[in-house]
Amino acid sequence: MYSVPPTYSMPSMSPQPMSLSQILDETFSLYRRNFSTFAAIAVFMALPGLVLSLMLTALTLSDLTTHIQDLERELARGRIQDPSELLPLLQPFLSLGAVSLIISALDFFVFRSLGEAASAIGVRDAYAQQASAGTALAEALRRIVPLVIWALLLSLIVLVPLLLLGLVVAAMIINEGSAFRVLFCLLLPLWPIVFLYLGIKLIFGSRVIALEGAGISQAWSRSWQLTKGAFWRVVGVTLAISILVAVLSTIIGGVAGLVPALLIGDSLAGSIISSALSAIVGALIAPITYIGITLLYYDLRRQHDWAAQAPAEMYPGRLS
User: How far is the C-alpha of 257 from the C-alpha of 270, rounded, in Å?
Assistant: First the structure.
């Protein structure tokens, strides 16, 4: 038996699914009324990406540019005869790549998983009038192990088909056989279809882990159940929210990043400030996605559990 969501304040309950406009309207309403909570969670999520962006901006405009010039100069003069002589010149790039990989892994597997779960918990707590970023993050942190494992599982769903495609391409290059070309032509269009299907069927997994205390296998089956009969609805809502967030991020983030460049000029400080502002604006827009998908999760959960256990209060209504 799954836990029952909190009681929501809505005078007239309807068993009808929430429309896209209702989900978007409720998303912006929740975000506006609980801005400090969701903004704090968003900034927490953005920390690794912000650090990486600032680091790359600073290095690209200073030391890294010098190393690139040194490498080009040595290659142009023909002084490098042994490939091992490249190692000292390539060391800064290798170090930067290693640090970037570690920060990116922390960003995707830890901070993003915690932030997504904390946002879902924030939506739940908002209807109980007790939303708090610290409380939401602390509760999400207690589920960090299954959340990270879930993120690893989702990444494998993407990487394994790509690895198979890479092996087929390698076999095509080595053997030049028509059979591998046929296999490649079959796998190439199949991968995005499989990726889309599994991505939608498993979209609620982290929310099931965070809000229902489920394990990995339960999250898989629960998310699969919730999307049964609603696949294309989930695709449409997710696509609409993603497009909206992308447009807002491009316009507002672009303007925010352009202002420092115009005021300070083309300098290291201006580039760093511009990069930081763009990252922060993008982070503050991201909760629209997490809130909207969580509302869709609750709506599908209400419909799925209606006959078994869901009284009228399971319908996520508007805050008064």
Answer: 9
> Is 0.70 surpassed by the pTM of this model?
yes
b/e map 220-240, b = 16+ CB within 10 Å: bebbebbbeebeebbbebbee
Number of neighbouring beta carbons within 10 Å of residue 312: 15
pLDDT score for 20: 93
Residues 305, 242, 209, 313, Cα dihedral to 10°: -30
- The pLDDT of 201-211, averaged and rounded, is 96
CA nearest to 53, candidates 318, 278, 253: 278
Instruction: Please tell me the predicted confidence (pLDDT) of residue 58.
Output: 59
Residue ranges per structural domain of the chain = 22-314
Over 50: is that where the pLDDT of 318 sits? Answer: no
Kindly give, in sequence order, each residue whose CB lies less than 8 Å from that of residue 239, ignoring residues fewer than 6 positions away. none
Residues 15, 306: Cα–Cα separation, whole Å? 8
Question: At which residue do the structure tokens 């901006």 appear?
Answer: 57
- Determine how many CB atoms are found less than 10 A away from the CB of residue 118: 29
Residue 217 reports pLDDT greater than 60? yes
Confidence category of residue 6, pLDDT binned at 50, 70, 90 = very low
**Under a CB-based contact definition with an 8 Å cutoff, are residues 209 and 147 in contact?**
yes
Tokens, residue 303: 């419909």
